[in-house]
Amino acid sequence: MAVPKRKMSRSNTRHRRAQWKASLPQLTPCPCPRKELVAPHRACAHCGLYKGRQVVDQP
Q1: What is the DSSP letter of 28?
Q2: What is the pLDDT of residue 52?
């Protein structure tokens, strides 16, 4: 197993961690008439459609 020979300085650690960035979630419009934005591979919270099929009963 690879083991660092020397301790990484706080400056280098923070410089490396500064590159970790959160990205915005990719959203796609739902096929229902309201066209609400939905995360991919998720059922629409408003109408319950997923890939054009009703998978969640909505009140």
Answers
A1: E
A2: 83
Q: Which of 22, 26, 55, 24 is nearest to 40 (CA)?
A: 26
Q: Is 11 helix (H, G, I), strand (E, B) or coil?
A: helix
List CB contacts of 54: < 8 A, sequence separation 6 or more: 47, 48
pTM of the model: 0.53
Let me know: does 58 contact 50? Beta carbons within 8 Å: no
Torsion of CA 3, 4, 7, 9, to 10 degrees: -130
**C-alpha span between 40 and 2 (Å, rounded):** 38
DSSP SS3 for 47: coil
